[in-house]
Amino acid sequence: MFRTHGYEGASLTLITAATGLGKGSLYHLFPGGKAQMARDVLTEIDRWFEREVFAPLRDSADAQAGIAHMFKATDAYFRSGRRVCLVGVFALGAARDEFTDAVQGYFERWREALAAALRRAGHARGAAAELAEDILAGIQGALVLARAANDPKVFSRALARLKRRATIP
Amino acid sequence: MFRTHGYEGASLTLITAATGLGKGSLYHLFPGGKAQMARDVLTEIDRWFEREVFAPLRDSADAQAGIAHMFKATDAYFRSGRRVCLVGVFALGAARDEFTDAVQGYFERWREALAAALRRAGHARGAAAELAEDILAGIQGALVLARAANDPKVFSRALARLKRRATIP
DNA sequence: GTCTATAAAGCGATAGAC
DNA sequence: GTCTATCGCTTTATAGAC
Predict the structure, then answer these.
(1) Does B8 sit within 8 Å of A6, measured CB to CB?
(2) To the nearest 10°, the Cα dihedral for A113, A115, A118, A122?
(3) Using one digit for the tens of pLDDT, what is the confidence trace for A14-29?
(4) Residue B20 lies inside a defined structural domain of this protein
């Protein structure tokens, strides 16, 4: 609900309908209310990316394989462009100020892990840093364009091109 | 207000405070209420980009000059990364469905005008189409990253790299 | 642990005085 | 054309029964 409606747009009524839980249950599980729900969702997303994307980027013996894994996991996570990025949605809105650390940390750690992997894969230091930024921006922007055009293929195409740029022939 | 708070987040209270107009005045000027306000803002944005970006891309005798003008106007419009894109914000949220035409049209006409200019500037047909998509996604994504990091320079850097990719040496 | 009932505030929108 | 007052509804959040 936060992903598709934004923080302000995701009302408790929508959340109760989507979860099948009444407000009483929600406040029992999340005493901090809506803010805690969002915080817990952000934490869960962070854990998923840490495990499925950042760690493989950092730890893969074969850097190229780690990068390839990132593209595959990213495509799966965003449902090939049918899903948008909750962290990106929060970043653009007023919610960024309430969840600064989570929003900032997500992109920062992704960028750092990717830049290091690109370096290990053979890109020059400066080029790797720039390329990592381009790839992250390319992914976020492609999600915007895909949803604007209501055409997930925009995302798939962009992801394929970014993967090609990351690969050293 | 729509840009910084999203469609749902931009309440009439925020809008009255920002404009200095009471609700009565707002509904006198915009009988269609909040939806009309958003529609009129989208129309205004569309006019601005049509005049300052799309038309120069299409009509410039020197295609390279038209593209350079686009990057300059884009940097100015987004305040070098201190502003985000209202159309992008709407695209990611539920507002897209209420303002489909405006959101879709904005990116589509930008992409088409840019692809044509890139082709006239010397890029091969297929490469120009791909590059146009990359540049639009790069801009939207850089706005996300810049706001997430609370660092406008992320946007300026990305824009400079995109401009370099658009230029044929 | 989940529910219903309810509170207090805020929402978009309208009416009518001036 | 702008204001205040108000409507009806929704919002987040709480209380208390079960």
Answers:
(1) yes
(2) -130
(3) 999 999 999 999 999 9
(4) no
